[in-house]
Structure formats: structure tokens, C-alpha cells
Amino acid sequence: MDRAAVAATDGQIGAVNDESWVAVDLSDDLSADADDGVAIEDRAVFRTEKIKGVLLHPYRVLIFVRLIAFTLFVIWRISHRNPDAMWLWVTSIAGEFWFGFSWLLDQLPKLNPINRVPDLAVLRQRFDRADGTSRLPGLDIFVTTADPFKEPILSTANSVLSILAADYPVERNTCYLSDDSGMLLTYEAMAEAAKFATVWVPFCRKHGIEPRGPESYFELKSHPYMGRSQEDFVNDRRRVRKEYDEFKARINGLEHDIKQRSDAHNAARGLKDGEPRATWMADGTQWEGTWVEPSENHRKGDHAGIVQVLVNHPSHSRQFGPPASADNPLDFSMVDVRLPMLVYVSREKRPGFNHEKKAGAMNALTRCSAVLTNSPFILNLDCDHYINNSQALRAGICFMLGRDSDTVAFVDSIPRASHPSPFAAAAAVVADEATISEAVAVTTAAYEKKTGWGSNIGWVYGTVTEDVVTGYRMHIKGWRSRYCSIYPHAFIGTAPINLTERLYQVLRWSTGSLEIFFSRNNPLLGSTFLHPLQRVAYINITTYPFTAIFLIFYTTVPALSFVTGHFIVQRPTTMFYVYLAIVLGTLLILAVLEVKWAGVTVFEWFRNGQFWMTASCSAYLAAVCQVVVKVVFRRDISFKLTSKQPAGDEKKDPYADLYVVRWTWLMVTPIIIILVNIIGSAVAFAKVLDGEWTHWLKVAGGVFFNFWVLFHLYPFAKGLLGRHGKTPVVVLVWWAFTFVITAVLYINIPHIHGPGGKHGAHGGRHSSHHHAGNSLHFTVWP
Ligand SMILES: O=c1ccn([C@@H]2O[C@H](COP(=O)(O)OP(=O)(O)O[C@H]3O[C@H](CO)[C@@H](O)[C@H](O)[C@H]3O)[C@@H](O)[C@H]2O)c(=O)[nH]1
Ligand SMILES: [Mn+2]
């Protein structure tokens, strides 16, 4: 490893937002990095930071104030019945209880925010040796992919490249790619990535490149220079960029190449009609996985297991590259050119066996890696995640070692004790056939039958959010987590920006959460190893979708009150308004404080609120329905892969997908809510115009709330209108259209006046009520 590069990147690791945090054990007036003055020998491998007192104390006081105000508010509500509409009164109070309860679930675990900051200089001093070797523990990194088309292979390749190029001792770091599609396309893309890595990785090391995923690196507008010679860097970068473009072209051509090659082989064999047409590897053998033209034993969900070592385990001593020459202009003579081991794994799949989605893939990888490298630590990335900070692996490992370098001996002993892995030995071992067939044997479809895998061992089955439940199982067994957020961000992943896809993703997450709630892994039942606040956090994460039921009530019923004339609150008093104001005001200030130390903007927080509203009344509701059906009728929930954006196409607008509308039933409820609120405000307007209600100022209060709901659903409406929605005018025109039509109809068609209409005195009273009734909502939003 190039020392200059290390030093340059090293200085960058820090907390995300340094001004709000202070080291624990230090008073507020000392800066967070005060222990830079302490000698390296005396420093811990990471330090703990808390929020500065000036922010934290008011934060906690506000939480307390809000709790009291909320309690008084609910007491007020219970003691002021609404005899006109008792059902409204009862259901709304139930809703307020729920909102209050879920606010507490969300708030309590945040009472004492803690961040950890790894000290990489200490880690290096204790674990790295002068000759370039290291005593750091082994680390097996798993990347999962399930479909080379839905999950673009270029993105998967980038993920793998970012891992191979990360700063970690190469002989102790292995990357496993799990391919649930079993397709040659994925395999060959990985083989290409391994080839390109021989240029990319030494280039990263030589010049201290950040980030080390090539796509995200070359996307950067400027390329700040970290290493030694500027001119050398510019030349090398141009050269590597060219290599990367060629690599991309090869990846894009793979599908065609495989097809052509296979056609040639099949033609040479003179296949008769109806005979299966095999897919052929470059070495002239038949691919054992899924074929391009699927046939028996060679289709998705029905194929053999495959384990292929793409990059073998490296030697244990540094290997410098060649100097620049005529056909190789890159000078790697001062750079270690070894690569970490890279293994392609496609577990066996057979009809009749539940392959248990990602959790099943992770368990197969766990066993397969145990046979090959058996590192004591595992890291998992999805195919669309990448390492964004080359120090991320070292940063993470800091928390696995404690303050005490003696633990290394212990950590080293784990692989030796648990499995006689060939690579745990000091010398480099080439994966021999016996070992490989052993690795294949542990990934067979039948392997887990009548075992504890998926329930007590490994990743847990039975939910579409296996990550949540697996973390939970670890915590109830006594494992502890540590929160660490560094800058530049350690990892970056992608999420769909298309409304439909995003709603589906949130549907899956909320469904998975509820599945856990209705299972033996309900956090109310967890062992006492769970910290009480951790239990609260798990209750929150497994119950939040229930909010949908109350939210839909609160975003429709008040608007309908304009039509029916029945309101949630009958006669608000001054105290009612006072409580309400405190409950609302504190919520806002709490958010502003959180936003400050979290390093996001108030705008982002608000956007998040808008999406929360949209998702709650669509995906969360659907999740509740799905899981009720599952629990009652024992029907399994299907898993839909989250669609990924195509990577690496510069000509394409990255936001093109944003306004592509694909209809889904999930959109029905938000649409109804939008309509109800427009109609509600239009009717209120009409009643005022009509002279039915005279207290127009008070009506305005109610209408304001309708607008507030609409404002939250505005991005949804824009998304729904597709490309046209790019101009906000279109949304406004639709809104005005609906509003005017409703108001005109209301005024001109006498029979839609409800029984409560045309009572001057009553009308006045009612109008004052909605204001209150409608305002309730925002009271209680968590
Ligand atoms: O049968 C399957 C299905 C999925 N996957 C992989 O699982 C990962 C996550 O799937 P995706 O559809 O992308 O879900 P996301 O919602 O984007 O993923 C988030 O949510 C999942 C839980 O639902 C977690 O497993 C992921 O780590 C987390 O990033 C991807 O790498 C897939 O290739 C498989 O390997 N096999
Ligand atoms: Mn994803």
C-alpha cells in the first residue's frame, strides 16, 4: 500500500457533522478531536461522541414538555365529548392514542444519541507491520445478486471492484458474489471485473483514489489529487479511464457474445428439433447453471450449484508490479499489485425447495465461505451498494477488536478452532478440486433440510426483511451493535426514484416488519439481553405500518366534516388551543434540533415527511392487509425484487425514471385522500359563499388543514401526472378544476345540501368546530 495515499485519506475520516458532537469524557468547551494530542500508544482504537449539551439538554426538556402537553391534551379530549357524533369522538381519540404511542416509540430510543469515531492511525500502529503485512483479522465480504437484467451487471461489477480496491490486507479479505440467477452472464461479467481489477486496484493504491468504485469515481466533476506526482496521475487516469470504457463495452457485449458462442457450439453439434440448446462457456464446456434457452436442470430455480474461484488467494508477501513499458504505460513498480480472492457462487436450486430469497443466499454463502476462507467477520453488500470510503473496512473492524490488542490472538483463533480451512494456514493455498466440491456440497438445495438454518442459525427466514429479524435475533442472543457514521460515507447504495417502484419497496419493508411482529420474533417476547430502549426501537420498527389505519382516518374524516356537518371536536376552549400549540411547536423544534446533528437539511426532513404521508396511506395500508391475509389464511407473501436503475449510461438523464408513471393499486388511497380534501375545502368555500356559514374566518382554519394534507401529497400528485407533472402548473390546474366544479355543483344543485344545512346559527357553530377538528391531526404526527 502506498503510504502517501493512506495518510492523505486518513485525515478525512470523521463524524458526519462535527460541530454538534463532543467526545464523551470531555467537557463541551474542548473540541471533539481533542485527543489528537494524546500519544498514539495511549489512544483507543475508537472514541465515543455524544451531542453537545447546548443541543441535548433543550432537546430532552422539549421531549418532556411535549409529553406533558400531549397528556393534558388527551385528558381534555376525553373530558369533552361530542354528543353529536360519538363515533367520531371515540375513533379520533383512539387515533390520538396511537399517534402519541408511536411518537414515544420513535422518540425514546433517541434520548441519548451516540456516534463512534474510529482512530485509524491507532489501528495501523497496532496491526500493520513495516513489511506491508498485517495482523488484522480476516474479512469475508458477500455481495448478492438475483438477476443480471433487473440488477444491472455493471453496477454489480462496480460493487465488487470497490471491494477489491478497498484498503484492507489483501490476503485477509475475500469477496464472494452470490448469483441467484445462476446465469453465465453474471459469471462472465465478474470474470471481466476481475480482469479490469488488475489495472484498477493498483491504480487506486498508487494514487489514493477515492471513491474506489470506478463508475462513481469517473462520474466526479473534479478529481482531487492525493498522491505524489501530478503528471503521472493525469496520464495514468487517462489510461485507466480508457481501460474502463473498454471494460464497459465488453460488459455490454457479453449477452450477445454468449449467445453467439453458444449458437456456434450448438450448430457444430447438429442439434435436432426439440433437443435442449446448451449455453457454452468460453473454455468450450457447458455452463452448469441457467441456460439462455432454459431447459430441464438449466433454468432459473432449477440448476446445479456452482463455485468458481475467479481470483485465487494471493501470496502472503508484497508483490510489486512491472515498470512502465511500451505496451504497458502504467508504472506499477512501486505498488503492490496483489488482489483479494474473488469467488463466484451460485447455490443449487431445485423445484420443491424453498430457496428463501436473500436470506437463503446469505446462509449458503456463510457455509461456502467457511469451507474456503472462514474469516471470523462477514460484511454484506447488495449488488447496488458500493464502498465509498476506502477506509470503511478498517473503520468497521475497529469495533470488532476493542481497546486491547490481545484480542487479536483470540480473533485469530476462531477460524482455526471452528474449521480447518486451508486458507487459515500461513502459506497461500490454491483452491483445489476437493475443497471446491466441498464448497459446492454445502450450497445444495437440500442441505438445510431438518436443520436449524433459518431459524436458530444464520440469516432468519419467514419475512421479506431478513436483515431486521436477523439483527434482532443477534441482539436477543447478547450481541451488541455500535453506531458509526463516518465522512466520507462508508457505503453508498441506491433506492428507486420512480414512484411506483419506491412504493413497492416500502410495501415490502413494511410487510416484512409486520411479519416479524406476528411471528415468534415479536420484540415484546425477546430475552432480557435486549436493552429496554432497544426493545422499544424494535417494537417501533415492527408496528409502524399500523399508523396507516389512523392516518387515513385523519386525512379524510375532517375534510368530510365540511359535507356532513359533524366534527371531531365540538367546542374547543382556549386551553385546547394552548395544548395543541405546544404539541405542534415542540414537534417542529425537536425536528430542527435533530436535523442539526444528523447533518441533513430541514428541507430534506420535510420531503421525508411528504413521502412518509404518501407511503403511510398507500404501502403501509397494503402491508397491513397483506399480513392479515397471511396470518389468517396462511398465504405466503411473494418477494418482488426492487428494480434498479441502469448504471453507467452517461447519455441517459439519471432522473428520467422519476416521472414515468406505472399504475398500481397502491395509488388508490392517496388519490381518494386528495379528492376528499379538495372536495371538502370546495364545499366549505361554497357554504360560505352561499351564506350557509357566516364565520368564514373559522372555516379558513379548517380549509388550511385540508391544504396542509394536500401539500404533503403534492409530490405524489406530481408523480402521478407523469411527464406533465414536471410543471407544477398542471397540478394546480387540476386542483383548481376539481375545486371549482365541486363548489359550483354544491351551490347550484339544491338537493345536495345536507340535513344540517341552512341553519344559520348552527352553521356558525359548526364552522368553528372544524377548525379545531381538522387541526387535530398535525398535533399528533410523530
Ligand atoms: O432471491 C433473492 C432476492 C434478493 N436477493 C438480493 O437481495 C438484495 C436486496 O434485494 P432488493 O430487491 O434490492 O431489496 P432492497 O429493498 O433494495 O434491499 C434492502 O432491504 C432488504 C430487506 O428487504 C435487505 O436485504 C437489503 O440489504 C436492503 O438493502 C439484492 O442484492 C438482491 O440481489 C437475492 O440474492 N436473492
Ligand atoms: Mn436495494
Automatic annotation (TrEMBL):
Positions contributing to UDP-alpha-D-glucose binding: K150, E151, D180, K357
The record's subcellular locations are:
Endomembrane system
Indicate which residues the UniProt annotation says bind Mn(2+). Answer: K358, D382
Protein keywords = Cell wall biogenesis/degradation, Glycosyltransferase, Membrane, Transferase, Transmembrane, Transmembrane helix
Please report the record's description of how this protein sits within the membrane. Multi-pass membrane protein
> SUPFAM superfamilies from the entry?
Nucleotide-diphospho-sugar transferases
The answer on whether this UniProt entry bears the keyword Transferase reads yes
Instruction: Indicate what this protein is called per its UniProt record.
Output: Cellulose synthase-like F6
- Species this chain originates from: Panicum virgatum
Against Pfam families, the record matches this protein to: Cellulose_synt (PF03552)
* Cellular compartments per GO CC: endomembrane system; membrane
Task: Locate the region Disordered.
Answer: 758-782
**What are the recorded GO MF terms, alphabetically?**
cellulose synthase (UDP-forming) activity
| Catalytic residues of the enzyme | D180, D467
Tell me where the transmembrane regions lie.
59-78, 544-569, 576-599, 611-633, 660-684, 696-717, 729-749
Q: Superkingdom of the source?
A: Eukaryota
- Signal sequence bounds: none
Output the GO biological process annotations, alphabetical, semicolon-separated. cell wall organization; cellulose biosynthetic process; plant-type cell wall organization or biogenesis
Instruction: Name the residue ranges with Basic residues bias.
Output: 759-772
